[in-house]
Amino acid sequence: NAGVTQTPKFQVLKTGQSMTLQCAQDMNHEYMSWYRQDPGMGLRLIHYSVGAGITDQGEVPNGYNVSRSTTEDFPLRLLSAAPSQTSVYFCASSPRTGGFPEAFFGQGTRLTVV
Amino acid sequence: AQKITQTQPGMFVQEKEAVTLDCTYDTSDQSYGLFWYKQPSSGEMIFLIYQGSYDEQNATEGRYSLNFQKARKSANLVISASQLGDSAMYFCAMRATDSGGGADGLTFGKGTHLIIQP
Fold first, then answer.
1. Model confidence pLDDT, tens digit, residues B39-86
2. In chain A, at which end, N or C, are there fewer CB atoms within 10 A of the end residue's CB?
3. Nearest residue of B to residue A38, measured between CA atoms
């Protein structure tokens, strides 16, 4: 029962580098999303997907790209890292059922951009 | 757009006392869900309790209950008989409906840092 798995757990990047944060879930959830958590800000939605091939922007999408080629995976790409992207990133998934299902979160990725 | 307000940045509570964490929300949607998550110092997000906007009874889950006052747009979390292990950040969040009719992403408050003292 892996749930939502994020890799890596920690990452240090230099300004201008690119990288991909991986997220995989084994619960066959249609809905997947990425959040960032900054001190004193709570979690903010970056991008989300309601199914394979469908993605949309959240509250803070600039500087990030996503794609959803399979139900299981939802990678988050930083094209050119900036110090302002230093944050803790959480991936979450939930079933796309009626009502408002709870979101299941990964363990988080702590990213530092220097 | 939705907004969640948590007005208590930090709280100190004696062990075994009950504690209420405040949450108010703002939305123009008639149908929505309200959630509370716990984030211990280890960093993971732990789901605690859920309340639907049309639920007539307040939600309860063990020592957690949600005091839902729809007219006041408040969804306070009540923890009875607090324990040292309850020390953590607590986030109130909500989901409304997206353009496709499914649940939208979560909107979070800024959180309350709860410290239980022995």
1. 999 999 999 999 999 998 999 999 999 999 999 999 999 999 999 999
2. N
3. B110
